[in-house]
């Protein structure tokens, strides 16, 4: 089974319904499917293209976990929630734009996405969970939006290519090991005017008082 056609009359699909369908390569979901259930496509190793309904509101936990061939997915702006481990170890995924209505990136949501080199986070984001981007070994820079208050434990650990990150004034807590095993050349551009007691960034390169919400492309 390499392709599945789901009738427009279908309104929901149960959790793990297509998990371990190792020959499934592409799927398009009709407008009636507004929620991607837990583990729906987990470990579909050949799934490379998914087309979601423009009415999709939620991507459940583990929905695309270990879909190691997935390289083409667009998240519609209607999405308000992305579950934990939703894209865990999607090792071919190269870029993602998180929809504007999403307020939190859960634990390990994009962990192990080793090809991910571009991610855009929404302005309304307030929290980034533990290990959300750990092991994203191709990610070189990221801008954390201005409403984020907390960055979880080991959030960017093992991001071996991470060189630049912008942290807004709103960040008050950074979890232990947030930048473990990142390169020594990593620079944190902190918008705070004076040093904040972030124990997790002790010993790292920090430029305080950074102006703006983007990284100077000339320095990338």
Can you offer a commentary on this structure?
The chain has 220 residues and is mainly beta. 0% of the residues lie in helices and 21% in strands. The protein has strands at 3-5, 26-28, 35-36, 49-51, 58-59, 72-73, 81-82, 95-97, 104-105, 118-120, 127-128, 141-143, 150-151, 164-167, 173-174, 187-190, 205-208. The strands form 5 sheets. The protein has a 4-stranded parallel beta sheet with strand order 1-2-4-6, with no helix packed on it. It has a 4-stranded parallel beta sheet with strand order 9-11-13-15, with no helix packed on it. The protein is elongated and about 55 Å long.
* Lateral strand order in the biggest sheet: 1-2-4-6
Order of helices and strands: EEEEEEEEEEEEEEEEE
> What structural class should be given to the helix and strand makeup?
mainly beta
Radius of gyration from the CA trace?
A: 18 Å
SSE map:
Blueprint: E1 3-5, E2 26-28, E3 35-36, E4 49-51, E5 58-59, E6 72-73, E7 81-82, E8 95-97, E9 104-105, E10 118-120, E11 127-128, E12 141-143, E13 150-151, E14 164-167, E15 173-174, E16 187-190, E17 205-208
Parallel strand pairs: 1-2, 2-4, 3-5, 4-6, 5-7, 8-10, 9-11, 11-13, 12-14, 13-15, 14-16, 16-17
In summary, what is this structure?
About 0% of the residues lie in helices and about 20% in strands. By secondary structure, it is an all-beta fold. It is elongated and about 55 Å long.
């Amino acid at each position: 089974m390499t392709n599945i056609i789901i009738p427009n009359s279908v309104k929901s699909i149960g959790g793990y319904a297509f998990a371990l369908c190792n020959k499934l390569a592409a799927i398009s979901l009709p407008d009636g499917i507004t929620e991607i259930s837990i583990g729906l496509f987990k470990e579909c190793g050949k799934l490379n293209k998914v087309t979601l309904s423009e009415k999709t509101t939620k991507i459940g936990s583990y929905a695309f976990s270990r879909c190691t061939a997935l390289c083409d997915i667009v998240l519609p702006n209607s999405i308000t929630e992305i579950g934990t481990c939703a894209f865990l170890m999607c090792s071919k995924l190269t870029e993602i734009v998180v929809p504007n209505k999403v307020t939190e990136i859960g634990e390990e949501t994009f962990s192990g996405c080793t090809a991910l080199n571009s991610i855009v986070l929404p302005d309304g984001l307030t929290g980034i969970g533990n290990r959300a981007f750990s092991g994203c070994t191709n990610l070189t820079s990221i801008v954390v939006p201005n409403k984020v208050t907390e960055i979880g434990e080991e959030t960017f650990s093992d991001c071996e290519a991470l060189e630049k990150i912008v942290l807004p004034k709103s960040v008050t807590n950074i979890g232990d090991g947030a930048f473990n095993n990142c390169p020594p050349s990593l620079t944190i551009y902190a918008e705070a005017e004076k040093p904040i007691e972030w124990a997790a960034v002790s010993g790292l390169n920090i430029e305080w008082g950074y102006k703006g919400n983007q990284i100077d492309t000339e320095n990338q």
